[in-house]
Fold each of these.
Amino acid sequence: MRIGSLVCTALIMFTGTSVADENGQITKSYPVADLVVPFATPPVKTTPFGTFRPVDTPTDCPTPPPDFRKNVDALTGVVAQTICPPSWQSAGGKGTISFNTKQLAVVIRNTPDVHAAVAELLETLRKLQDKSTPQVVMEFRIIDMASECYTRFQDGKEEKKHEFLSDVQVQKFLEFVQGDRRANVLSAPKVTTFSGRQAIIQIGEQIVLPPVPAAGLQAILPKSAPEVAELGFRLTVTPEVSADRKLVTMEIGHETANCTRIGIDENEHRAEIERSECTFAWMVPVGKTLMISGPERMQEVRTEFGAPILSKIPYVNRLFKNVGVGRELRRQVILVTCRVIESE
């Protein structure tokens, strides 16, 4: 039996008991957000140093959707119909059951025996819910590389937006990336989520844009807070496991923001930030690796070259080193491998 959708581990509340009344009844509150409200997964954030927060450590309780009351009614109905039905007011008894919307909890007033049965029933429902929803482990490798290098890896073949790779092909591609000094492995997170639950990976940094030159009275007025731009990319993934547990349908959204140029003149403060987004949907066999080629973008690239040894000596290296700044087409390539974990 499946009453709700997913588990909310962020809700922490005390279910203290009250003193029994003259009828021997006590009041208890049972958190049931995991049984009645779908869960919103927080993002996995990766810093420039490569650390990230696991997807299963939420910080916020889910906001109930408009139709979540039907799940509440189903849950309270199961409780009233299966646990000592004559004891509830609906059947002429003195026990009550209600729902606290703010705490997302069922509030029950009844005898201790009924409370013990309610606790056992809720535990059983949670076990059934966990068994019916498989977990998906997604291993990502997110690589930023020049489009020319990606085309060279394709060896002149028709460029594909996506393709499935064997383990040997994955190893060959990673060795190719390691041999190209212009390629950069941005991150390699491993994310575990439930089938049907969205996972978010966000990698990037914040840059402070230079202030606009002030003139006249503006120069003596208090300065406003500096403008901050968020750069990087955001990946949203929603896996859905097939009934035979052999395929994973993946809906992937890819958003990027890159600063291509920052400039200042007397009248204008310019920051050229290029943004792009696209969505994909594929069916991935369990255990196979899907390679996704993101959209191309133009990016400013700084290159240093010079004599092998002399260009590394401080101060002296200025005489033996050249720095080139240019623009080249780049793209992000994403490798993702899915595996399914069955609940015991």
Amino acid sequence: MTPNPTQHAPKYIFVTGGVVSSLGKGIAAASLARLLVERGLSVTMMKLDPYLNVDPGTMSPFQHGEVFVTDDGAETDLDLGHYERFIDRPLTQANNITTGRIYSNVITKERRGEYLGSTVQVIPHITDEIKSAVRRVAPGNDVVVVEVGGTVGDIESLPFLEAIRQFRHDVGRENTVFVHLTLVPYIAAAGEVKTKPTQHSVRDLMEIGIQPDVLICRTERPLSEDVKRKIGLFCNVEFDAVIESPDVSTIYEIPLVFRQQGFDALVCRRLGLETPEPDLAAWTAMVRRVTHPARKVRIAVVGKYTDYADSYKSVQEALIHGGIANDVGVEIAWTSSDLFTDAATARALVAGFDGVLVPGGFGVRGVEGMIEAIHAAREGGVPFFGICLGMQVAIIEFARHVCGLDDSNSSEFAPECGNPVVALLESQQGVQEMGGTMRLGAYACRLKPGSRAAEIYGQPEISERHRHRYEVSNQYRDTLQAAGMKLAGLSPDGSLVEMIELEGHPHFVACQFHPELKSRPTRPHPLFAAFVAAAARRADAGRPSQAGA
């Protein structure tokens, strides 16, 4: 739905969380935002993260999950991926603010003498900086949905909570809504749900001066009207403002669950927004394709961080989107590359799947296992899709086993190797700082006419998001092409290899960029749609035995 132009002061919705972490504040916030988009409103979203890192770019995926990269090259929290997928619009650096960035900005201003000799303090200087960051994303939007990271009661998030408390006073109660997400656990021994954790969480929030307007209650079991009325009474919110958020089979069901309870209508009334009713027919049809696909495929994601699926959250969602495009359910097998210890083991493992995807990553651990997995997929005719590191490893595998360059490697993993077919980007030479210094953000790519990539995209030039330091070494281009590898995509100046593919294979495509970052449930990325389609063809054919197995 095309948003109407903003004709009023921006409205702000602040989403906080209590009791425990990982309840799904980001999904809840994005689901509400989707409903508002369907009402014709222009909506943007923002994440306030309480950690001291300036951004998550240097964090371990095991600690923080994936790093989501925006078009402007910002390394951000994975929740921004959820935001983009739900509201279907690109976000920027301004949409993710951390404690580290806020303090860095304030200290920089202090050093420049911008505070006129004042004693710089958390209140008002830090809180003012936070409020300014929120205001910066508002122009041109009807509604700004702001998720406050962390859990109420954590010391780290106190400045953010104080800032949003002040914000309501600054812009007026009629322009803000406070939403609090809590847990209502089911106690099996007692055979009932317990509301006390929610009561305590709201009490903690009220001690800071914030009275929530709406409560979202995460629960395994349905909440009776009596339980909802009890929560409303003890937490000082209206009965219809107690919203249930049950466990569902797919996150894309949450907007439908919220709509059934009138969550979006309630928020619009509170904010004085007059809008048409949302049309969720297309969204409902999309959800049905996820929950009731015509058939299924099994995809192995062979990576380094597979013990923690959030490390590949956008890949996971993009595979689901590829399934939506083909009316196929995608069963993902998170497979550690360390399991691919030799060629025979790799052939046996790969034979059980309809497709193999090797995603991004950093460091040498697990790379030899990825090479074995790609070797098995290439020789066995199993659909393969490589992303970032996945493309680089595919280059190494091809150079070793087809070009005859046995000592091929990446200079990232083996600086002294004889044939560094993957090498450090020229722009990265001499870079010392680790944070925010890679090739980041959206760059153009020109596709080779007649290539499979050009056929998949249906256009000669594309723009995709990147996050890497290493690239295919240009001195090996002729060798690779002479052996049968097609360089299907190059940077506009021809200096960087962006995509490769193999002819005569059911589907062997790899890219240096991260297409998963631009995939949407309503607009599946063409590379993922094509990969899942190839996997479905293999599944329909009965997953034939690999040649030479």
Amino acid sequence: MPAEASISPEEIRRLVTELRLRSTWRLFAIAVALAWLWMLTTTLGRPQMAGEALAILLLLLLGGGLTRLAAFRAPQVAMPGLVASVTTAIAVAIALLGLPDLAYLFGIPVLVAGALIAPWAGFVMAGAVNGGLLLMQRTAVAPGNTLEVALVVSLAAIVAWSFARDFYVVVEWTYQSYRLAERRTREAQLHRSQLSTVLKDLDLAYYRLRRANEALAWARWQAEEARQAKARFAANVSHELRTPLNLIIGFSEIMVTSPESYGQPLPPAYRGDLNAIYRNAQHLSDLIDDVLDLSQIEAERMPLTREQGDLRQVLEDAVRMIRGMVEAKGLRMAVSLPDEPVRLSFDVTRIRQVVLNLLNNAARFTKAGEITVELTMDAHTATVAVADTGPGIAPEVLPRLFEEFYQADDTIRREHGGTGLGLAISKRFVELHGGRIWVESELGRGSRFAFTLPLTPFVPSAQRLTPAGPASASLEAAERILVVWHDDPSAALMLQRHLEDYQVYPAASASEMFESVVRLRPTAVIVDSDSRAAAERLLADPRCGDVPIISCPLPTRPKLAVGLHSADYLLKPVTRESLRRALSRLAHSFNKALIVDDDPAMVRLLARIVRAEWPETQILQAYNGLMALEVARNEHPDLILLDLAMPGMDGLGVLDQLQREPELAHTTVVVVTATELGEQTTQFSGEMNVKVPQPMPASGWLNLLRAATTTLRPAPEVGTWETKQATPQPQQAPASEPASVLAPARALPG
């Protein structure tokens, strides 16, 4: 038996004694009942024997009563007393009644003694009975078959011994099993109670966890909403600031660089003030760009245009750009670069911006000494360091140096300028490449800023996607990447503007597209319809994995210009250089230009820029669509600079009307707009093809079909025989027909 179920000998003896007592009293009751029945049967028809039979019954009852009284004081005498009472009653019955055959009943007390007192007690009782039988041989009541009686008594002793020998072991085992079961039952009840308590605690914990998860989800949603609101606010505010700021920069630039366009020279004092206005407006424009960069990085919507570039060359270019400023302050410039090119895959523009920011800070804060630029390499990283002999940075300031808008004190802003965004943006750019940036500084001895770039291409954790498999289908939108293959970067810019939940990576060449696919594992590759076959051949390489290919007529600025029947498509803010390049690309020269915009300041700015670059050009002005058409009909300009968003007749209406009038249909138009009106109304014919290499479930195809059919419009109602015969493909409406027959109202035929 297990150790935990062991029972003490005292407990076993108590149990056996109690069991014996109960059995003894039951057997005595049975013996009394049998004696009474025997008395009835014996005296029936023989009344003379009633006295003897009654005496025997009373003797038996007397012995039982005395034994019962004795058992209250000493329970252990109950069993021997009852055995003795039964034996005496049998002997007296044999003597009084003269019935020797009653001697066979001596086997009953022998059995009881061996079974209830002890196994050896049965043999003792059998010996005593057999001895008594031998003594009775000398009397007249001696049984004639004494040998048989002795044999029965001895056999009863043996039976009692064999029964009692295993009976008590079984009793012990049974009792131990009972106690063990009882103990286990109590333990199970305790465990059940504990389990019930644990379950209640788990239910409470689950409820609290669910409430915490709901609170976290709500907080995350609120944080995401706040982040998106901040990004939208930054974008909207920057857009609202750019329009007047563009006017300020444009006018001040014209005044400073081309004062002759005003007909007479400006006083020197004016030119100095205008220079200050121009510099500060340019600084404000750079600040807006920095805020936009930060908002895009935080929204994870700023893709890196990686390319195989030479980091050594980037540093040389940055040093060349800043050297004049350094030497003008009387500082020395020390450069330590490797002799061989350092080829890396990185965004050249962003890293150049980081280096220029570090060099510019060093030049601004260093009054004497030198600035050192160093490029070192190890097995895994390239390290760029810019050190100066400036005033140094206090230790308590260093931990917050890369925070947005943080500066040690206001004297820095007053003395050296700056907004506190340069280092924060530099840190984000370096981290997007998988590197790190840090600073070492000591007051009075200078500072050393350094950053690392991995030699192998780094893909952020959100972009490390497997090329295939079910897991890639369940990615969050913020982790989805699109590679756009087109030689015009405006295609990727337009897609990024409309697909806000995706990171759009432009690829200007086939090799760049292939490298981006292998490195980024994008959700899909988007190509122009004309490039679909070439893209499929390139992406058949096993290194690309199973990347879906989407081909469609990609909108670009040149295509928008063609769709609007214009020569070019410019987005505000328009700089002098961008307008000059656009007008220089025109196929023919122009002598008379009409500028159309509902903002008189923008009209004046564009007029100043055109007059500064082409002084002989006659400038015409209009402030709405109807005025523009009237001027165009009367003056027949060679060039029209046209804004699309205007009250009344907008730019689209002007373009539509120009195409209807033969005398004006060939006028060169350059669209200059700040809205997406051109993208919304320009129509392209063609087909969209989606190639999915990996099998998709039916739900995936249905979602794809739903997304595609959401943008489709019902076919127009058939009103005339001519429209019934028209093909379903979009086509250009004849110049003599209204554009609304084949296209929506106010939309130009595509």
Amino acid sequence: MENKILVVDDEKEIRDILSKALTRLAGFHVDVAQNADEALQKLEREKFDLVLTDLKMPGKDGLQLLSEISKSNPDVLTVMMTGHGTIDSALEAMKKGASDYLMKPLNLEEIIVRLQKVIEERQRFVRLKDFATQLEKANLELRRLDTMKSEFVSVASHELRTPLAAIKNAVQLVLSGKTGKINETQAKFLSMAERNINRLTNILDNLLSLSRIESGKMEMNFQELDLREVIEFVTHSLKLQADSKSITLNSEIPEEIPKVYGDREKVEQILTNLIGNAIKFTPDGGEILITAKPFQDEGKRYRKMVSISVKDNGIGIPKEHLNEIFDKFHQVEGSLHRSTGGTGLGLAITKGLVEAHQGKIWVESELGKGSTFTFTLPLSEGERREPSFRYILDSEFRRAQEGFSHLTLFLIEVSEQGDRIEDGILDELEGVVRKCLCRMSDILLKHKKEKILTALCQTDLRGAQVIQERIEEEVRKYLSKGLTRPILIRIGRATYPDEALSKRELFGIAKENLRG
């Protein structure tokens, strides 16, 4: 397909020369205009790939024409022709969007080469833009499918647990002899069924936990924790399991170890998974040591932390598996590992729970000598924002970056007569705001201490404006019912990547807009 070029110059001789040269020598389809007004009229009627215009012309000059084209036809390329002594104007044209400039007197061979280069660069840009658009669509589709998968796993796991519990109760009832006497063979098979029911229940629990972690919908109850007490509780609960293999469970926790800030149930689950794995992969007569100490790190993110380590003298992990050990469904090949069973979800869940506390987890291991799993938890002192929010913001921001998609953070504050709103009304407002969000994957969090709702939505600037207007309208409608006191709604928002390019910047701009 021929590229269409519009030549604009007030000198007929130059128009004719360029028209013939660009048509015969370069194969372009060329039209001409003697001034800016005629050029703009032709641009309204026809589609051109490039406009080659003189800078100095009667009436509107080349710079004015360039400005008009950039407004009405931004996809059209422009190249400026200028005489000696007007280099500053040519540079000004480049700043305003011209793709190139040519100096008079004109060299026809140079003109053809330069115009072909400009058009080829635009074609490459268009191809890259199309590719990026296709890639973005593909990533959005993958995210949609991933969300559907997580929702399906969550629903399926939840729905299967109820009938499974009924089956387990029935088996236990028969095993107890309350429904009638059973013989030894029947008891053997019923016990086998009970073990498999327990295994299936554990698999469903793991799938449900993982889907909640991945979707950012895991409920967290943060509080100040005495780490010594939590570790003692978990080691005591696993003592029988360790004793069955003659494994010694020891812990060395300094009395002065500072308190941490976390969800007790989730921290217990982390420790149970790690110590349980250590017991599973440590031969009979082995030893497991749990330690804790203040964590020193040059990085700012993990500076005020405590590290907890679970060390065993078991079979160890091959070096080639260390990088993938926390991946979903990853299992290390080996006879002992296969004999112990497992779904390969335990460490993936453990990693998700640690990251939900703004911590990190890693492993050091030597084959045949044992492994040491270490994770960090934040100190209780000085923690202001809930780690659950920071974890979800980190997770969603990372998804937006990897998926080349938009992410908007909303901070929503409602107050009455200069005072922040009561907890009860804030709870009801949470439901009102949730209905204003567009996608099932959009996340809404409530911060009772600050009396603020935060929302993370997969939308661009235009969609964010629509959501904000909808929230403002619906909240006003709700609060106006039966309330005579004046209500003030403040909404601060910021959108990645349009307004912010980092998590810190995203939160900072949203907070600034909230206070502004």
